[in-house]
Design goal:
Blueprint: E1 8-14, H1 19-30, E2 39-46, E3 65-69, H2 74-84, E4 89-92, H3 103-113, E5 122-123, E6 127-128
Parallel strand pairs: 1-2, 1-4, 2-3
Antiparallel strand pairs: 5-6
C-alpha cells in the first residue's frame, strides 16, 4: 500500500488498554465500509507495561502498524501518531470507542467537501459539527 493510495490514517493512542476495549475498537474498524486498502491503522503504544504489538494476532481484523512512544502523555503520543501517519487525513480513535461502519467513509466525504477544515467533530447521531 502506497501513501498516495491512502485516504486516511486511523490513529489509536493508548497506554495499558483493557484487552476487551482494544479488541472491540479494532473489530469495529474491521467493519468499516471504506475499503481497508484506502486507510491505515496505526496504534501508538504509550509506554504500556505489556507491549501492545503482542496483542494482535492474525485474525480477520485490521492489523495495525504499532509504534512505541516512551515519552508519557497524550500530547507526545498524538504527535508521534501524526509523524508516523502516511495519509493526508488523520482520524484519532480512543481505545474505548467503536465506530459506526460508515464513520471513515463519512470523514473522507467531509474532508473532500471541506478540505480547509483543520478539525472535524463527528457526532454519531447528528453528523459533523
Amino acid at each position: 500500500m502506497t501513501a498516495s493510495s491512502l485516504l486516511l490514517s486511523v490513529v489509536i493512542c493508548t497506554h495499558n488498554p483493557r484487552k476487551d476495549f482494544l479488541s472491540r475498537t479494532v473489530e469495529g474498524l474491521g467493519r468499516q465500509t471504506l475499503p481497508s486498502s484506502r486507510w491505515e491503522l496505526l496504534v501508538i503504544d504509550n509506554a504500556s507495561t505489556e507491549p501492545i504489538g503482542n496483542r494482535f494476532a492474525a485474525s480477520g481484523q485490521p492489523r495495525p502498524r504499532v509504534n512505541r512512544q516512551e515519552l508519557f502523555g497524550l500530547r507526545s503520543t498524538r504527535l508521534s501518531g501524526i509523524k508516523e501517519s502516511t495519509a493526508g487525513l488523520i482520524v484519532f480513535v480512543d481505545v474505548d470507542n467503536v465506530l459506526c461502519p460508515d464513520y471513515l467513509q463519512k470523514a473522507c466525504a467531509i474532508h473532500e467537501r471541506l478540505p480547509m477544515l483543520g478539525v472535524i467533530h463527528v457526532d454519531e447521531e447528528d453528523g459533523a459539527t
